[in-house]
Structure formats: structure tokens, C-alpha cells
């Protein structure tokens, strides 16, 4: 019967079209062989919906089933193609190969493919061209289908739901059509940080800023060989002249500190040519950086190509994310109404009169550049010669050349402007990085008649140096007047410029170029309007003679007063020239005598210029204001300071500003590092549909390399909008500038930051906080503290630094204490570091992973630094993404700190001293010289540290001992609990004894000579000294050839130790912890009080005290999903037992419709694991108790695990008052699986129990309840809750797995 029913089950049932989820299900019946079937339908919101429907249908026929995994199917019947890919969050990834074979049998005439996540997905993973647009309308940056699906899988998708931008590939849903086209093993895949090896590649994507976001990344390159990874886009069509490509790239690898570095290239393949658009700077650092490329007007089809070549002996990895295409579509076809200053293009769009015959196809059909229309313009493309222009003899001189001949150096143009080709000609002047500065290369026009209608359009290219300069002037017989000047690095692109001449006598146009070190200045397409008429009488207009160039060497600049200084000393916020001229044009200005060093680097239709004003918001006079620009691009205006600095931590910039704009307009300040090409936003204000003005103070902070400040603004100048700035100043910016509070390391952050400063070179930052759902400050409970939240969107930096300014040398050690908080299910690392001037950094203290939503006190000794100055820094690493870090009440006192009450050995040895040299050593497995554990206990990795002693006979002969002694601990209460983790090697490692020393008395309190298994074990002992005391760990050799004894995670707590694995969570977590695995980003249970926190929800009172001040463990199940579907809480290892009892109280607040998971208790041992209790997600209506017998023939751990079968599972789970009674059975607990009790009888039992308890209390002493409360764990009877309680063995299971 079962076999017949099984044979009737179809192997495949999927939708006939579309993209949908699927599950692979194994179906079985009594006495019949099982078979696998595929089920996939678009109606299923979750994979669990598919499986549950399938299981119900099969059960009606007497068949059972299990889900083997899931994924997605793209079914395209019109193309007869099926693609299988993806995975299920709840069930895991199905075996797509098995699924594919099933589908091939069902669809024999189809092309059926499959791919695991992390590989390039085909175009079938999103809807493409739903309206069947013509081929020439696909991927042309114009939406022709109503859903814009004709612009999907084009190297971009029609829209990024996360970023809210059109024509963007954020890689969250697909690869957008990008393909790996390399021929070697060095290639590209779609991946994410949570699938990568920790420490290699990005720790987070750029879109989400988390470890579950997706990006494209190169695979591991072959070792010791040169290889290139190639990535190509689909075919795109018709890029407009305004097209702008932006993407974020992340470089990493062993090359970061090498001289020969890999370079990421972006090129465009058009017709038979491949033209470079952009390449990464020659010096880069790890992290996400933005690239901006301008392909120019491209007719017909083209493709983009990213490539990275790995030099030999140089492991290189690059990731790409958030590839955006802005303003790339041609103007919309169709008749439009044009303005008075516009003309109608042939294709129906409008073009400004000022854009006619300017060398750029603005219409999109070439009409505005038609030869007949532009016949009266004089156009020189330099393709054949210099036309009527003359390169003035001298040094340097303008050279005519092509990109093919000049090569691919960083500053060289990659193509000309006229033809957008490597073979096209242009004029250029370059300067090698070591060449001495010379004069300007000059290009002169013929002599023109006096005019008021002559203008020049040209395209300039300034790249590779922040000090390059291009100027356009006119020269008459009596004067030379500067008309336009371009300075700095404009990027690898051609920028349109227009200059109008109104001259009353004959004149020449003079174009001068000065290339900065390593830079190139180039010009192309010089177009003179019909109003530029050559003078026939040829009056003599002589060009002014040039000087002999700079008297200074290549790496120097001249002072106005004479003499030279090193170039890096200019604009470093200190007068090095006797007349201060080296700081004269460095950004501090009122604009009354000029721009003060600021220069416009805009490339669009807005630019910055000097204007006279009389408005009330700014003092009357000259200001820097936004005005109409001549560039061909679309975007904000940008002005840039000269290279400044380096700067000190107190550096700030101040300016007055005025903005009148709608809310879409803005004014912003950013800081860029020209060495690495990185830019960070420092300040921004939006328009408010009204005029606003103020003086703003913008912290710039400490910067170790020269930097430039940028002013960005975007408003619509067609109306009455305006933006103006004035009175720019830089304060306390010199590297040695001392703030009055620089030495104030003690700080509670209630008034200010004292002597601490923010590192502003990253957008991952500390912020001054009052809690906002995380919890209150430590000082007052309602004040300020510093916090870091790694889950804030678009915090992409690698670390957040809080640091002091340079401190004077310290002649004696000092103690630095502070209060910290590390909260959240996936929080990263907090370090305290010491930086010696000119030396390496030293980690003084570190913690990683959740320590609960509770303030903890820590301290460390700041050592004497001799003659060296130093800085102290708190560092949060961006290696966790769910949680927050808090810091408060920093205190510095004289003298070294006392014994540390908590020591993980990650930073240093915590003052523990070895009695004999070369016995006990602090080490990690990855760097240690002594045999020891493969991983420490704190981090669970080979890089984590511990203390270890070699007990082999060569190091510690039989009977010999090695002692490790702590500093004195101060007695604070009558009893204290010492806990530590230890590991003894296999074989005969010897023994470990623990002594307590007080005055001259030494008392053994613990001895360990054997250990079951090879894991870390926890031990504890209650200390009841009469005063200050020390602990001595003594290892004794046993004469074996090899062996070791290791220690980690030493803690001293107030109060007697609880029984092993028993805890009320009021003092600490008693050894209960969530396993740490950085590669899997495991979720941690939290530890908090019942005080309500919006960010960390939980019960409003604990079970132990029944108040909001009591503590418990908790977990918010809503975080389960793409990062993982379970959260573990494990006890310390416990010895084998034949009859023990576990009691605990749990609290659930999970709505029924979101309760697809469960809380279960599992016993884990080397022999396997056994689930002994579970309860499905629900609302528990208060704390509920459970007790269950525990049996294990071998050493084991108790594990509480929250799992979800599908995503989401919304709600909280909490645990309190865990009591493990070793060797004591649960007399009321059933020995086998127990049926669920009816709720009514359950409550009745509880009520009777409570009444009986009340009678006993009434007959007993008045303090009886208090006595019971104190014995809550030892007595084996869970205490009452304030909500309906009861013992709960709802789904007792005994499931054994090997």
C-alpha cells in the first residue's frame, strides 16, 4: 500500500513561469524505499509554507517526509530555461544538483542550470523586459516598460530598494548581469562577509554596512604568479555626455605595505577599442572607497570591464558594491516646449543655446554639433596639428600626443575628448614626481579684433596632482588679464570650460599649464565662436616674458621674502617663512583680497565664484558664492582648499554661511585624503524653503597626512536660490597645538569631552549619547556617555577611535579606570591602546563579544614611557554588527593599578608573575613557542591568548613545580569567588594546585590532576580570607615526555560561589556563555536587568527578586535570519552523572503567528547530543518553571538553544534561576516522554501548591519566606513569580544524534 501511494507522488510540481521558492523533500512510507521530490510555488512566502503544505498532502496518503533544504527557481518557459539557485534560511541549501536532475527528467527539452550562493547568477533571477521592448531599448538608461524591467540585469537594476536610487546594482538580490570573463583561477564571485573567512576581504558590505550584505569579490589568487581577474558588464547602449559611474571598492591583502601594489582598473569596451576610464590611486589603504568615472558620450553598444592584476608574491583581493549610473540616459524623445534660451533638437528634446557647437553631443542625435550649423565656429581637435594655435617655445612646452603613446601612468588621460579614443590627439604638459618645478607651458592664439561676442570653449584634464594649474588669460599690448583658472585634481575626465571675452583692443588668448608633481594638465577641442575674428592688420601683441622658473628644488616652494622651504611645510598651520607667506593662501580668508587658496573644482552646471554682497546674513563685502557653471556634468558645485596639515586632534574649521533653497538643496563640508583618494563627510545642512544663515564650527580632528577640505553645494539657481560662505578660519590645527584640556584624561562626559578627541578620518564614530533605548549613563543614570553603534546604516569604517592628544612623557605608572558596556547579540571588540610617539601601539586591555547591557568597571596600568610622548586610545573594531558599546567615567590616578578582578590575558598578563623564568608564558597558539591549546577560551580562536606552562620532563621534571602568583586582591566582603578556566594536555601532564596566600600563610584550596576530554574546563572556589590575599597557581611535573597546563579567563567576584552551572545572574553569568565563532558570527544571549530598554526588550521584572532591578539572560529572536537560525547558551563542562536535576525559569513573549521556533534544552557530549526538553514559541504570561532529569555517561554541557524554522520569529526569550543539582534526581519528573498537561489542571496544581505554601508560612516564623528566598537554588524549589507560574514539562523529548 505504501509503495503504491509513493509511486503516485509526482517527482516535480513547480509553477509554470516566474521566480519562486522551492524545497527538496524526501518522502517515505512503511516498507517502501524513499524518494526525493521537488515542490516550488510563487504563493509561498516562506520555504516552510511549501513544506508544511506538502507534508499535509502526503500525510493524507499515509506518507511521511522530511525537508532536505530549499532554494529558488527561475522558470522562463518562453526561453525554455530553468535556473536553480539560492538557499533556505530555515532549512538550509538544498542539493541543487539533485533538484536539477529531477527537473531535467520533467523538462527534457529545457536548458536547466544551477548555482550555489556565492557564485555569479544568470539573468533569470530577476524579471527582465516584461513588455518585450526592442533590443535597442534594453539597457539604455531609459525606462520603456511600465515596470522599468527593460533596465534590469544591465550591470544595474532598475532600482535599489535599500539605497532608493535608480539604475543601481547593490548586489543584494542578484549579480545584475556582471560576469566573470577571466581565463585563470583568479576570478570574481558574488559573496558576503558572513560566507568569507574572517580577516580576509571586507568585514561588511557597503550597501547594508553589515556582514550579511552582498558584494562582488575576487577569489583567492594563485600564489607566486601574476594573474588578472576580469569582470564584464552586459551590453549597455547610448551613454549621454553627462553619464557618471560611481561604485565602491574595497582593496585588501598582503600587498598593503608593499611597494608594488595591485591597481584596480575600470575600462569601457566600445566597437573594437578598450578605453580606460579610471584606476585606483597608487597608494591605497584597506576599507571601502568610492570611485567616480565619466565615460563621456558613447554611441551604440558598449560594455564596462573591471580588472585587477595581482603582481607576483602579492596576494590581492578586491570587492565591488553599489555600482550606480547617474544621468546616463539620453534626453527623452518627443516634442518638448523649449525656453527662450533653448533650441529644439531633432529628436524632440531641448538644448541650451550656450551648448550649441561646443564639441559635445548634448541632444543625443548630434544635431547640436551638426557641421552645417557650426560652420562659422573654429574647432581645433589637434588630430592633425595645432591649427592656428602656437605652442610658445621654452620649458616646459605643450606636447601633442595620444594616450596610446603616453601609456597608463596614473595622471595621464586615458583617451582624448574629440573621439573618446586612445588614438585621439590632445595637448599635454606633465611633470614627473621627482622633476624640479618649472614655469608654465604656454599656448597662444592668433591676434583677434576687439570684440564683445567672442568666446572660447575648451576641454581640460587635470589629474594626478593636487597642485596642477590651468589658466586662461587674454593679452593686449598693455595688459594681461586672467579670465579663468583651474587648480587641483579634477579626476580622470575631460571637463568643459567656457570663457567669454569683452575686449576693446586687439588681443591674444593665452592658455598656460603647470603640472604638479606626478600630475598632467591636458587640453582638447578648442572651439572659438564666430565673434572671434582674426585681426588682419596684425598689430603687435607681445606675450609677457616668463621668469626663470622657481629658484627652489623639486621638493621645495619659495617664500615671498626669499628662500625656500620643504613643500610639505606649506599650509601646515605653522609659519616657516619669515614673512608667513607659506600660510597665506591656506584657506583662512575673508575673500576680500581673493579666494585665499580655495579653488573651484566643479565639473557641472554649478560652480563657486567670488561675489559682492550686502545681505544681512553675511557682512557686506566679498563672499564665495554659488553661480552658474560651464561644465557638462550634472552634480553639486565643489570648491577645494589647498593641501593642508597634517593636523592635531583639536583642529576645527569655522565659517559663516547663508543658504536659501528648497529642501532638496544642501551645503556640505567634506575632507579628502589626496594620497589614498578617500573622502569623509564632516558637516551638512539642508535647505528649508527659507533663508537661513549661521556660523558653524566643524571638527576636522587629527590627520596624519595632508588633507583637503571641500565645500559642496547644490541648489536650483533658476529660481531665487543661493548659497554663500565667508570668514573661513582654521583653529588649533597644528599637530602640536595644545588644548587647555589636553591632559584631562579623567572624564564623565557630562560637560564636554575633556582631553579626549574623536578620530574623524572614519565614518564609524563614537557619539555623545543619553541612551536612546540602550540604557542610561553610569555617572548619574540620566547624563551623558560615549557610545558606538555598529548597526547604524552606512558606518563603513574599520574602527572607531577615541584618543587623547600627545601627552608629555610619563615618568611613573598611572592607573586608568573606566566603565564600559558591550551589549547585543553580535557585538565586536573594545580595545584600550597605548601609542608611543614614533613607536608601535600596545594593547593594554581588550574585550570581545557581549558582556550584557550592564556597566562593568575595568582598569589597566599606563606604564612609564621614559622620554617618549604618547597617546591613549579606546578603539571599537567593526567586527560585530548587532549591539552597542558604551564608555563612561574614565579616571586616571597616580600609581599602578591593583590586581585585576577579571583577566582574559588578551592584552597582557594582568600582573600575574611566574616564580621561575621561562616557566609560565602568555601566548596564543598562532604565535606561541610552547605546546598549548589550539584555541584560547575567551575568543575560541588560535589568535586568542592564555597562560601556559610546559610540563614535559625537559622543562619541568617530575616533582618540580612552577608557580604563577597574582597581585594582592583586596577583601571587599567576607567571601569571594575565584573562577578560572583550565586545560590539561592528554597523557600525563602533571597536576595543577591552587593556593591562597595571606600574610605568610599558604593554604591549598584546589588540586586538579586529571581532566576528561580536551576542552577548556571551568573551576571555582570560595575564598574566605581575613584580609587581602593572593592566589598562586602551581603546576607540578609528572615526568612525561610532553605535556602542558593552561589557564584562561580568571575572575574574582564578591560572594560565595554558586553550585556549578547554577546561577541567579545577579552578579555574573556563572560560566554560562554563548560559543564564540568569528567565522559564523554566532549570536550571544544578553544579560541585563529588568529595567525597560527599547533596544533590548525583555520581562519587566526578573524571577529571582521579582523587581526591575533583578537580572536575567535574554535573547531577541527577531535577529534570527540571514546570519543564522539559532542562538546557543552553554554551561561549563560538567562531569558524567547518572541522576541529576536541572531546574530553571523561562519567560517567552512571542506572538502565536510569529512563533515558528522553539526553546530547547540539549545535553552535548563527545558522543553526540540529546534534546531533553523543548517548548514552542508562545506568550508564557509570566515566568514559568521547568525541571528535568539529567543523565550522561560522559562529561557533558547543558545547552539552551533558540531555533527558528522560518524567518521571521519575533519576540523575546528570557532565562533566570538556573539550578543544577548534581547527584540529586528530580523525583517529580517523569522518566520518559511526558504528555502535555491540560492548562486547567496545571493551574489548579499551582494554586493548591501556593495555598499550601501560604499556610506553612503562616504557621512558621515571620522570616520564613526570606529564608526560602535565600535558599532558592540550593533548596531545589523554584521561587514564585508574580504571574501565573507552574512547572512545565510540555514537550519532553529524548532525541539522540550521533
What is the secondary structure topology, with strand pairs?
Elements lengths: L1 H6 L4 E3 L3 E12 L2 E10 L5 H13 L4 E13 L4 E5 L10 H11 L4 E5 L41 E4 L4 E5 L9 E2 L7 E5 L21 E5 L8 E6 L3 E4 L4 E10 L10 E7 L2 E7 L7 E7 L4 E13 L5 E11 L15 E3 L5 E3 L25 E3 L9 E2 L7 E4 H4 L18 E6 L10 E8 L2 E13 L5 E7 L4 E8 L7 E9 L3 E8 L5 E9 L27 E3 L5 E3 L32 E2 L5 E8 L7 E8 L8 E4 L11 E10 L4 E8 L4 E9 L3 E10 L8 E7 L7 E10 L24 E3 L8 E3 L15 E4 L10 E6 L9 E13 L2 E8 L4 E8 L3 E11 L7 E8 L4 E13 L7 E2 L9 E2 L5 E5 L20 E6 L10 E5 L10 E9 L6 E8 L2 E8 L8 E7 L6 E7 L7 E11 L31 E4 L21 E6 L9 E5 L6 E13 L7 E9 L2 E9 L7 E9 L4 E8 L7 E10 L17 H21 L4 H7 ...
Parallel strand pairs: 1-3, 5-6
Antiparallel strand pairs: 2-3, 2-4, 4-5, 7-8, 8-19, 9-12, 10-11, 11-19, 12-18, 13-18, 14-17, 14-19, 15-16, 15-18, 20-21, 22-32, 23-26, 24-25, 25-32, 26-31, 27-30, 27-32, 28-29, 28-31, 33-34, 35-38, 36-37, 37-44, 38-43, 39-42, 39-44, 40-41, 40-43, 45-48, 46-47, 47-54, 48-53, 49-52, 49-54, 50-51, ...
Can you characterise this structure?
By secondary structure, the protein is mainly beta. 5% of the residues lie in helices and 40% in strands. Strands 7, 8, 10, 11, 14, 17 and 19 form a seven-stranded antiparallel β-sheet that branches. It has a six-stranded mixed β-sheet with strand order 1-3-2-4-5-6. A hairpin with a 2-residue loop joins strand 70 (1157-1165) and strand 71 (1168-1176). The two termini are 32 Å apart.
**What is the rounded Rg?**
37 Å
How much β-strand is present in the residues? 35-45%
Secondary structure tally: strands? 75
Gross morphology = globular
Can you give the mean pLDDT? 84
Low-confidence stretches: 117-124, 195-199, 1229-1298
Beginning-to-end CA distance, first to last residue: 32 Å
Helical fraction: under 10%
The largest β sheet comes out as: 7 strands, antiparallel
The DSSP helix count reads: 6
Helix and strand composition category:
mainly beta
Q: What is the oligomer described by this structure?
A: single chain
Amino acid at each position: 500500500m505504501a509503495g503504491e501511494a509513493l509511486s503516485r507522488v509526482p517527482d516535480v510540481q513547480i509553477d509554470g513561469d516566474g521566480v519562486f521558492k522551492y524545497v527538496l523533500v524526501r518522502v517515505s512510507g512503511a516498507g517502501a524505499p524513499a524518494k526525493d521530490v521537488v515542490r516550488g510555488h510563487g504563493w509561498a512566502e516562506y520555504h516552510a509554507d511549501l513544506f508544511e503544505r506538502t507534508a499535509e498532502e502526503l500525510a493524507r496518503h499515509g506518507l511521511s517526509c522530511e525537508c532536505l533544504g530549499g532554494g529558488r527557481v527561475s522558470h522562463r518557459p518562453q526561453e525554455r530555461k530553468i535556473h536553480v539557485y539560492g538557499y533556505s534560511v530555515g532549512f538550509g541549501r538544498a542539493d541543487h544538483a539533485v533538484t536539477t536532475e529531477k527537473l531535467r527528467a520533467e523538462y527534457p527539452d529545457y536548458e536547466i542550470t544551477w548555482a550555489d550562493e556565492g557564485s555569479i547568477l544568470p539573468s533569470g533571477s530577476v524579471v527582465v523586459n516584461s513588455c518585450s521592448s526592442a533590443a535597442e531599448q534594453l539597457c539604455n538608461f531609459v525606462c520603456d516598460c511600465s515596470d522599468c524591467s527593460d533596465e534590469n540585469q544591465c550591470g544595474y537594476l532598475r532600482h535599489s530598494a535599500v539605497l532608493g536610487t535608480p539604475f543601481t546594482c547593490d548586489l543584494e538580490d542578484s549579480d545584475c548581469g556582471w560576469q566573470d570573463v577571466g581565463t585563470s583561477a583568479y576570478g570574481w564571485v558574488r559573496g558576503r562577509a558572513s560566507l568569507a573567512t574572517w580577516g580576509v576581504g571586507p568585514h561588511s558590505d557597503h550597501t547594508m554596512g553589515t556582514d550579511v550584505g552582498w558584494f562582488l569579490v575576487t577569489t583567492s589568487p594563485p600564489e607566486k604568479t601574476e594573474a588578472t581577474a576580469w569582470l564584464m558588464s552586459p551590453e549597455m547602449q547610448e551613454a549621454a555626455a553627462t553619464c557618471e559611474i560611481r561604485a565602491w571598492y574595497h582593496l585588501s591583502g598582503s600587498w598593503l605595505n608593499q611597494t608594488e601594489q595591485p591597481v584596480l582598473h575600470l575600462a569601457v569596451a566600445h566597437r573594437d577599442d578598450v578605453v580606460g576610464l579610471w584606476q585606483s590611486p597608487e597608494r591605497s589603504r584597506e576599507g571601502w572607497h568610492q570611485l567616480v568615472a565619466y565615460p563621456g558620450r558613447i554611441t551604440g553598444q558598449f560594455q564596462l570591464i573591471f580588472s585587477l592584476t595581482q603582481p607576483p608574491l602579492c596576494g590581492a583581493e578586491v570587492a565591488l558594491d553599489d555600482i550606480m549610473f547617474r544621468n546616463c540616459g539620453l534626453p527623452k524623445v518627443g516634442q518638448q516646449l523649449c525656453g527662450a534660451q533653448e533650441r529644439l533638437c531633432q529628436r524632440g528634446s531641448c538644448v541650451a543655446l550656450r551648448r550649441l557647437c561646443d564639441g559635445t553631443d548634448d541632444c543625443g542625435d548630434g544635431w547640436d554639433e551638426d557641421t552645417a550649423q557650426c560652420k562659422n565656429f573654429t574647432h581645433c581637435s589637434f588630430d592633425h596639428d595645432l591649427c592656428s594655435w602656437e605652442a610658445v617655445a621654452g620649458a616646459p612646452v605643450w606636447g601633442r600626443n595620444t594616450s596610446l603613446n603616453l601609456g597608463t601612468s596614473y595622471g595621464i588621460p586615458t583617451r582624448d575628448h574629440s573621439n573618446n579614443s586612445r588614438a585621439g590627439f590632445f595637448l599635454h604638459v606633465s611633470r614627473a614626481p621627482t622633476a624640479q618645478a618649472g614655469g608654465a607651458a604656454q599656448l597662444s592664439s592668433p591676434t583677434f579684433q576687439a570684440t564683445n561676442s567672442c568666446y572660447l570653449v575648451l576641454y581640460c584634464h587635470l589629474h594626478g596632482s593636487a597642485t596642477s594649474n590651468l589658466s586662461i588669460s587674454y593679452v593686449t599690448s598693455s595688459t594681461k588679464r586672467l579670465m579663468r583658472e583651474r587648480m587641483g585634481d579634477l579626476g580622470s575626465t575631460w571637463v568643459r570650460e567656457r570663457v567669454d571675452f569683452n575686449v576693446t583692443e586687439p588681443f591674444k588668448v593665452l592658455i598656460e599649464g603647470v603640472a604638479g608633481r606626478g600630475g598632467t594638465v591636458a587640453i582638447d577641442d578648442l572651439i572659438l565662436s564666430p565673434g572671434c575674428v582674426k585681426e588682419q592688420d596684425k598689430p603687435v601683441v607681445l606675450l609677457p616674458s616668463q621668469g626663470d622658473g622657481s629658484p627652489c628644488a623639486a621638493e621645495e616652494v619659495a617664500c615671498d621674502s626669499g628662500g625656500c622651504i620643504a613643500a610639505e611645510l606649506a599650509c601646515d598651520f605653522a609659519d616657516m617663512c619669515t614673512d608667513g607667506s607659506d600660510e597665506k593662501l591656506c584657506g583662512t580668508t575673508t575673500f576680500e583680497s581673493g579666494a585665499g587658496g580655495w579653488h573651484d573644482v566643479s565639473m557641472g552646471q554649478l560652480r563657486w565664484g567670488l561675489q559682492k554682497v550686502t545681505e544681512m546674513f553675511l557682512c557686506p563685502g566679498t563672499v564665495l558664492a554659488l553661480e552658474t557653471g560651464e561644465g557638462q556634468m550634472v552634480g553639486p558645485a565643489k570648491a577645494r582648499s589647498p593641501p593642508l596639515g597634517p593636523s592635531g586632534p583639536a583642529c576645527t574649521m569655522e565659517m559663516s554661511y547663508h543658504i536659501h533653497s528648497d529642501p532638496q538643496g544642501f551645503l556640505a563640508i567634506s575632507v579628502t585624503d589626496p594620497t589614498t583618494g578617500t573622502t569623509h563627510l564632516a558637516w551638512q545642512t539642508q535647505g528649508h524653503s527659507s533663508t537661513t544663515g549661521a556660523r558653524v564650527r566643524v571638527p576636522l580632528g587629527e590627520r596624519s597626512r595632508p588633507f583637503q577640505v571641500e565645500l559642496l553645494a547644490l541648489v536650483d539657481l533658476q529660481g531665487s536660490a543661493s548659497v554663500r560662505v565667508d570668514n573661513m578660519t582654521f583653529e588649533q590645527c597644528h599637530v602640536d597645538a595644545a588644548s587647555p584640556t589636553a591632559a584631562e584624561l579623567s572624564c564623565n562626559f557630562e560637560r564636554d569631552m575633556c582631553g579626549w578627541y574623536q578620530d574623524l578620518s572614519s565614518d564609524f564614530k563614537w557619539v555623545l549619547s543619553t541612551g536612546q533605548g540602550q540604557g542610561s549613563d553610569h555617572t548619574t543614570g540620566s547624563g551623558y556617555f560615549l557610545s558606538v553603534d555598529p548597526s547604524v546604516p552606512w558606518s563603513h569604517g574599520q574602527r572607531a577611535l577615541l584618543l587623547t592628544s600627545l601627552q608629555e612623557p610619563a615618568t611613573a605608572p598611572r592607573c586608568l579606570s573606566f566603565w564600559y558596556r558591550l551589549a547585543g547579540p553580535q557585538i565586536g571588540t573594545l580595545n584600550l591602546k597605548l601609542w608611543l610617539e614614533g613607536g608601535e601601539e600596545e594593547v593594554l586591555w581588550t574585550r570581545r563579544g557581549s558582556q550584557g547591557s550592564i556597566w562593568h568597571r575595568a582598569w589597566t596600568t599606563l606604564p612609564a614611557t621614559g622620554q617618549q610622548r604618547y597617546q591613549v586610545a579606546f578603539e571599537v573594531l567593526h567586527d560585530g554588527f548587532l549591539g552597542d558599546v558604551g564608555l563612561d567615567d574614565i579616571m586616571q590616578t597616580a600609581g599602578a593599578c591593583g590586581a585585576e578582578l577579571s583577566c582574559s590575558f588578551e592584552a597582557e598578563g594582568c600582573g600575574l608573575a611566574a616564580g621561575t623564568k621561562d616557566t609560565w608564558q602568555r601566548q596564543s597558539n598562532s604565535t606561541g613557542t610552547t605546546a598549548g591549546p589550539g584555541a584560547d577560551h575567551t575568543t575560541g580562536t588560535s589568535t586568542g591568548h592564555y597562560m601556559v606552562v610546559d610540563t614535559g620532563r625537559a622543562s619541568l621534571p617530575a616533582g618540580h613545580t612552577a608557580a604563577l602568583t597574582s597581585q594582592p586582591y583586596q577583601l571587599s566582603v567576607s567571601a569571594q569567588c575565584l573562577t578560572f578556566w583550565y586545560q590539561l594536555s592528554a597523557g600525563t601532564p602533571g597536576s595543577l594546585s591552587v593556593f591562597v596566600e595571606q600574610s605568610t600563610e599558604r593554604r591549598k584550596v584546589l588540586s586538579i590532576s586529571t581532566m576528561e576530554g580536551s576542552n577548556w574546563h571551568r573551576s571555582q572556589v570560595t575564598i574566605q580570607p581575613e584580609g587581602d590575599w593572593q592566589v598562586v597557581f602551581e603546576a607540578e611535573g609528572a615526568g612525561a615526555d610532553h605535556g602542558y597546563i593552561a589557564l584562561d579567563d580568571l575572575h574574582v567576584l564578591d560572594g560565595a560561589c554558586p553550585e556549578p552551572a547554577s546561577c541567579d545572574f545577579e552578579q555574573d553569568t556563572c560560566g554560562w556563555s554563548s560559543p564564540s565563532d568569528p567565522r559564523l558570527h554566532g549570536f550571544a544571549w544578553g544579560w541585563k536587568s529588568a529595567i525597560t530598554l527599547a533596544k533590548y526588550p525583555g520581562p519587566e521584572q526578573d524571577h529571582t527578586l521579582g523587581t526591575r532591578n533583578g537580572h536575567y539572560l535574554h535573547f531577541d529572536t527577531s535577529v534570527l535570519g540571514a546570519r543564522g537560525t539559532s542562538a546557543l547558551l552553554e554551561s561549563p563542562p560538567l562531569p558524567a552523572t547518572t541522576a541529576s536535576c536541572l531546574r530553571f525559569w523561562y519567560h517567552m513573549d512571542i506572538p502565536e503567528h510569529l512563533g515558528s521556533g522553539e526553546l530547547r534544552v540539549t545535553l552535548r557530549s563527545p558522543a553526540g547530543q540529546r534534546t531533553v526538553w523543548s517548548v514552542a514559541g508562545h506568550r508564557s504570561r509570566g515566568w514559568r518553571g521547568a525541571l528535568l532529569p539529567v543523565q550522561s555517561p560522559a562529561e557533558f554541557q547543558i545547552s539552551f538553544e533558540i531555533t527558528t524554522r522560518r524567518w521571521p520569529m519575533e519576540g523575546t526569550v528570557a532565562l533566570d534561576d538556573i539550578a543544577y543539582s548534581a547527584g540529586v534526581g528530580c523525583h517529580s519528573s517523569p522518566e520518559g516522554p511526558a504528555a502535555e498537561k491540560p492548562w486547567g489542571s496545571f493551574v489548579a496544581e499551582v494554586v493548591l501548591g501556593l495555598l499550601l505554601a501560604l499556610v506553612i508560612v503562616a504557621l512558621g516564623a515571620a522570616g520564613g519566606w526570606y529564608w526560602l528566598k535565600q535558599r532558592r537554588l540550593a533548596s531545589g524549589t523554584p521561587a514564585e513569580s508574580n504571574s501565573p507560574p507552574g512547572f512545565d514539562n510540555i514537550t519532553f523529548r529524548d532525541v539522540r544524534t550521533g
